[in-house]
Structure formats: C-alpha cells, structure tokens
C-alpha cells in the first residue's frame, strides 16, 4: 500500500476548533494549530498528514482540483458550489440551516407559503448570498422568482424594498430577529462534512477509509 | 466588450507553447500507433454538426454543455461535445453493411461549456470505439488498451477502477427501491455523496447483515474477491450476468498483467443513463480528475436507428500532459542539430538539404549579421554543430 502524504484542507473560522478536537480525539492529529491563524500549512510527518488552513468557502475548490486529498467543508458551501467532490461523512457539528425569511410586518401575506403569495402578487425577488441554493429551491417548487445576489447583510434587502424575501443561512436566528425578519420555511439543514477528491478517493482509498473509521469511532454523528 | 488591441482569451481555452505542443503531438502520435497496432483505424468527423442529429443521442449532462450556433439557414449547429456520438452517427449512417466488429480510433479537440472556473472548455481526447461486439472479451480489450495507453504515455503508476451498471442496478432493485429511489441512489453514488447514501440505506427494505453489506458498498474496493462479498445481494438475471462478465474481464486483465492496477468498485458510475454495462476510469495521483474513462454503451447506436452493441474509452490528453508535467516539468524547446551560415547560399542550401534528408534538424541563418554574432547566437541556443559555408572556405 502506498504511504503517500495525505493533504487535508481545514476551514478557517468557527468550524476550526471543532475540527481540531475531532481530529485529535480520533488520534489523527498530533500537532497544535496556532490560534492567531497566520500559519497556513502544518506538517505531521509521523502520521503522514499535511494540513492546509483555507477559507471555509475554498475548501471544496482545493479538494476538487486535488490540491488537497481530504477536506472539511460545511454542507452549505458544498450545496452552493456544486463541486465535483466526494462527500464521505456527516460530522454532525457546525449545524446551520437555509431558510426563507420575510419581514415580520408582512408575515400575513405569506401565510399560504410562497406559491400562495405568487398567486396574488406578480413579483417575487429573492435576495441571497447563495444564488445556486436559491435557484434550485425555486426551481424545485416551480416558483418563478428572481434572484438578487448580494455579498452580505442580506437582511437589509427586504427592509429597503430591494427584495420581497431572503434566502439565508442561519444558525441561531438572532440576526433575523434583530432585523425583524421571520423564517417561513426551512429549505435544508447543513452540517460539516468530510469531503475527498475523487481521484484520491480511489487512489488512496485504504488510507482514507482508515481516516473515516478513526473518526467514526470517536465521533458518531447524530442519526 | 472591447477586446481590440488586447490579447485576452475566453476562459477554458489555452495556447500550447512549442515544448508543450511537441509533447502533445508526440503523445498523440505514439498513442495512435499503439492503438492502430490493436487493429483500430482512425476516423475524422466534423468539428460541428447539426444539433438535431446529435441531440437525440446525447445524455443530459453533455446536452447542457453544448456550444450552439445558428447557421445561415437558421439550423442549429453544435461543436462536438465528445467523439463517441459522432462516430455512432457515422457508423449508423454509413457503415451498417460492414462486417462487424468495427474498430475505430481518433484524436480530436472537444468542446464543452464547463461552468467551473479553471476547467478546460476546449480539450483534447484520444480514444477508441469498438462497435458490434457485445461480450466481455470486448470490454476486456478496451480496458486493456486503455491500460496500455496509460503505460505508453509514461504514467506507469496508474489505477483503473471498474464497475458494472447492471450489477449496481440489480443490487438496488434487490434492496427494494422504487425506480425513483434507484435513480436517487445512483445520483448519490455517482456524486459520491455518502451521507445521502447512508440515509437511503436506512430506508431500504433490507435488514441485518444485508443492510450492512449494502451500506458498505461504496467502501468495497479491491480485486475480484470483493464480488464474493456482494454475491448475496445480487439476485436478478441481468446483474448475475454482469458479475459473470466482470469475472471474465478480470481473467483477461490478469493475462495482460494489469490486475495489480485494477480495482473493482461497483458504485462507479459515469453519468446516468448512457452506459449500459461495464464502466471504468483511470487515475494517477498527480491529477485530481480521471485521466481516462469509458465503458459499454449498447443503446446509443439505436438512437440513430441502428441497434448495435458498442464499447470504448476516451483519454483526456490535457490531463495526461498535466500529469507528465508534474513528473518532469522541464521539457525543453527543440534544439536543432545543425546551424548553417555563410556567404555561399547555394552551398548552404545544398548542405542543409542533405542533412535534413539524413534526419537532422537544421536551422539556416537568415540574418545578415556579422559572422561572430551568428555563431554566438547558435551557441547560446545550444546547437551542437555550426557550419560556415563561405565561397572561399568551409568550416565546421
């Protein structure tokens, strides 16, 4: 069996401490990641692993191109990017969900859901940071909506009449509440996933499977 | 958009500089030579064809990636998104009365509207189509030839993964899935979305050890012995037949000596609905995408009104070049063997001609620069032989 070095892309930010804990519990990581986040590459020669610290949204890209064999990415990122990668395991943490939210003040217009709204009003504009997720949602429900892609602070859009509704990722729902928005529908949940490059999955299969087994042993995802 | 005076290119196309172009040309020539030695003949089809003709036979994925144009008669034409479909068209339209099997090969540029940044939209393939041969011997020939091609290309450390559509379908049917669920399962497995797969396994009608076995399907990677493990999951006729042909193919691969590099994974799917039997892909560690892929497509020619079994593979030249580049990046420009300069142009031409006929690469000096400069130029370029042909003297 070839004992090549495995390159593992980890997401910077809120998931990183959770990821570090799981990998250490599983006995896969013997090094400490520095807290200041300046260092981008860590080597663990004993275990034959090299860690890359990437922007969370870039992990699927590193993995798809084979610059990393393995990675940990949120399902939200995976859904939005639609990259050609293997999704090996649900790690269960970092939970958040995609929701459709509307201004509290207009809640009654949406009582019957978006299709009922569209039977009374001609136009539905959806502001979102996740145009692909939003489009596949609208398409799956046959809702003729127009997507307005924003880069952040989506909550502003309905307040100033840029969009009727938003599709956004929420974890606690605080931001929605603070901006007087209410979720009217949950599209899908999203947790952290272990992902792999398609070729690494085949060429380094036994090594990757031993990784999965080690993680599964200490960290059974909630069913 | 104003591109005037700029040197921009659209995303997904590339230039090949001399060393790269040479490497590509040599690779293609060598591959064609190898493939011809297996009895395959090269065919060439047009770069663009009628949309109506090709579209009937394209699978959804390729359909969505077509470059379309409207010609002067209002007909929609498309740039070829693969070579298998045009060759199927060619055989159905012109070669029905030939004696089968037909063995064809090609090298061609292929056009697909890839949305991912960094993916090639024009890329090069070399491949074969073996038409009119239904049995596992044909499958084995095509895989073996793909393996030989990888070796010839200098990618000795390759892995081939083999799967079988009928076996997988049989397993999914056996698990009690409805047609819609089978489709869902295939999508999850082809995307290697194992999280969804686990949920589907939970919903299956299997229990106990069968359920565990089903769950383990994507992790079963190995030699012929893994077929033993799943034997119990396979009940219907087509799937049994599929297992039999996998075993046969394995035997033939062992005669070629490739078994160490072949791995069976029954969850290998290459797109949906196109392949009908055995499928395979080749990988090397250096490149994050499959280098080569193929399989049996027994229903394609019927879409052109000529039902006929067929199998084949296509190797992506660009990815081979990427892999080779990672193995040995320094691939120098071609250096001539001779540099000839001198005032006696008649002698210069005569000598150059002789040397070229003998197979040497000869560069003739075109400049009227001083002798010393010309010689300095040739030595900077590393040309080993410098000839000076003057009226009064000839110096090497």
Walk me through what this model shows.
The complex is a heterodimer of chains A (223) and B (396). Chain A is built from 9 helices and 11 strands. The model of chain A has no long low-confidence stretch (mean pLDDT 89). With 223 residues, chain A is an alpha/beta fold. The longest helix of chain A is centred in the last third of the chain and has 14 residues. Chain A is elongated. Chain A folds into 2 domains: 118 residues, 3-Layer(aba) Sandwich (D-Maltodextrin-Binding Protein, domain 2), CATH 3.40.190.10; 94 residues, Periplasmic binding protein-like II (D-Maltodextrin-Binding Protein, domain 2, 3-Layer(aba) Sandwich). By secondary structure, chain B is α/β, with parallel strands linked by helices. Chain B contains 14 helices and 15 strands. In chain B, strands 1-5-6-11-10-9-7-8 form an 8-stranded mixed sheet. In chain B, helix 1 runs antiparallel to helix 5, helix 5 packs across helix 11 and helix 7 packs antiparallel against helix 8. Chain B is elongated, with a radius of gyration of 27 Å. The termini of chain B are far apart. Chains A and B meet through strand 5, helix 8 and helix 9 of A and helix 8 and strand 9 of B.
Offer a few descriptive terms.
heterodimer; A: 223 residues; alpha/beta; D-Maltodextrin-Binding Protein, domain 2; 6-stranded mixed β-sheet; 5-stranded mixed β-sheet; 9 helices; 30% helix; elongated; B: 8-stranded mixed β-sheet; 15 strands
TL;DR of this structure?
By secondary structure, chain A is α/β, with parallel strands linked by helices.
Number of contiguous helices of chain A: 9
**What is the number of helical segments of chain B per DSSP (H or I, 4+ residues)?**
14
| CATH class placement of the largest domain in chain A | Alpha Beta
Give the termini distance of chain B in whole angstroms.
56 Å
Oligomer: heterodimer
Q: Helical percent range of chain B?
A: 25-40%
Q: What is the CATH superfamily label of the largest domain in chain A?
A: Periplasmic binding protein-like II
